[in-house]
Amino acid sequence: MDQFLLLMRQKNRINFPTLNGQPAVNICIFKNQQYVDLKYDTHLFDVYDLRGNKVLENIEENRTWRIKIKQANPAKYQYYLILRESVNLDTIKQLFSSYQKHENNLSIVGVGGDVYLYDKAVTSNKKYVILAGPFVDERDARHHSKRYRSLTHCRIHRQLVKPGSGVIEIFDSEFECSAEVKNGVKLIPKDYTSYFELQHFEVFNSIESKLHHENLFYRGALIVKIDEFKKLTGVNEIPVESYLKGVLCSEIGERVSLEYAKSMAIVGRSEIFARLGQKHFDEDFDFCNDGHCLRYFGEKCNDPVIEKAVTETDGMVLGKDNKICNAYFTYSCGGHTENASGVWLGVDFKFSKGKYDGSDSHNTQLDLTQEKNVREWILNRPNVYCKLISKEQPQSLKVGADSFRWEIFYTRNELENILRDKTGEEAGIIYEIIPLKRGVSGRIREIEILGSLKNVRISGELNIRSAFSKGLLNSSCFYIEPEVDGDGVPISFLFIGAGKGHGVGLCKVGAAMMAKDGKKVDDILTHYFENSQINKIY
């Protein structure tokens, strides 16, 4: 038997789960919680243990409940580095052989599969991943990545080895009713239009880029279990269309145009079907609730536009040749979208390519892979879709007006400390920062820091954004203006950049402005995904 196939554990068929006859997904909506305060209508929900036994029966009044751990054995995970991925197995075999010269602890994993809904094949999202590991924890995995010649694109993957166990308590705020259950608790609605409420949760608002404490409302079921830190993790089991309404509330906010909302609904639904079985393939949920998958902080935003957008696009996805599009999107491309291969190693993205994001064509010939052109591109502020100039824009776009072009200033000492904290590398005095490779949008793919102690090379759009910021830089499309002392040693660095996010696929600000200018959903999606078409799969 082929030595490579011995390493694989791919499912050939993925049956898309359903609830009450509707496509459904499992979303991790919180983790690492000391306790959870929960409110629900006792006439609309029942509480069960994980064996299906009903608890807290005959409760007539609506109450606020607290769920907390009484005794716990933590869940156990193994951690891996994702080195490369591709839909092409021959490509993966070649890369695997090259990595084996320097690394023994490798495996090929097939993820995704042929996706079936209602016993009908709707797409095939098979791909192959090279993993290094296992490692005992995430830190150990990241430390191992330094064996490679640069700080690379390596991402962390974790595999659930043993679920958490123990005793979970649930009791009301008056301590009048209580129950103890083993290992976990499940809140199940009598119909899936009912809401439950999670109280006082800290969430990140992607529209305003701020943390808020909010009460979050969800449809569907809630499963609460014990995680690897002896704390609580929660999974929301919910129909896809209800999930999409929550995604749109979280990703684009309220009071947006219908055509923009419809575009995002189709893009989000495409992502769900295209990535099922790929994202968290070794865990007990399909997607998480942050930017790694799709942002999702509950559904109850009461926006009729979002409700209408999801309803009018029910079952619609982007695709071609019986394959659903990996419909990536970014907040602001800065005027030029990026190739997926310029951001993620080995990603095959045939549905779209990086392109100038405007209606005029005079800037389309500017080659942003060349360093000499990037400064001109950033300073000239071309007239593209995501350039916000009117004071009459919706609030959801106004807060992102500074993402089209941006600046951030560091003293040299500040930047040295950030680099040390974020990468673990001690470069010493930073003498120079040199972009080595740029993608078609001008985003830096590889960069080198020349230091007094050592030179540090960093690869990967996200790694670069992380290495030069306490959080994340808006994007990796930037140039740097150093200020030097009399000896030519830098004393500060000014980063001047364009765009917010990885730049691949649909530009959210650009799509919103296209809709404002009268473009329809077909025009918007054809612009960003020119090699796909809208199909209805249910």
Plain-language structure description:
By secondary structure, the protein is α+β, with helices and mostly antiparallel strands. It has a domain at 328-501. 20% of the residues lie in helices and 37% in strands. The chain is built from 11 helices and 32 strands. The strands form 8 sheets. Strands 2, 3, 5, 6, 16, 19, 20 and 21 form an 8-stranded mixed sheet that branches. The protein has a 6-stranded antiparallel sheet with strand order 15-14-7-4-17-18, covered by helices on one side. Helix 3 (240-252) packs across helix 5 (304-312), helix 4 packs across helix 5 and helix 4 (258-275) packs across helix 11 (521-528).
Keywords:
11 helices; eight-stranded mixed sheet; 538 residues; alpha+beta
Question: Summary?
Answer:
20% of the residues lie in helices and 37% in strands.
Topology:
Blueprint (H helix, E strand, L loop, with lengths): L12 E3 L2 E2 L2 E12 L1 E6 L4 E5 L4 E2 L7 E11 L2 E11 L2 H12 L5 E6 L2 E4 L2 E5 L2 E9 L2 H7 L10 E8 L2 E8 L5 E5 L1 E6 L5 E11 L4 E10 L1 E6 L5 E8 H13 L5 H18 L11 E2 L15 H9 L3 E5 L2 E2 L4 E2 L40 H10 L14 H4 L6 E7 H12 L6 E9 L5 E8 L4 E4 L1 H7 L10 E7 L5 E9 L7 E2 H9 L4 H8 L4 E4 L2
Parallel strand pairs: 1-10, 3-21, 24-31
Antiparallel strand pairs: 2-3, 3-20, 4-7, 4-17, 5-6, 5-16, 7-14, 8-12, 8-13, 9-12, 10-11, 14-15, 16-19, 17-18, 19-20, 22-23, 22-32, 25-30, 26-27, 27-28, 29-30
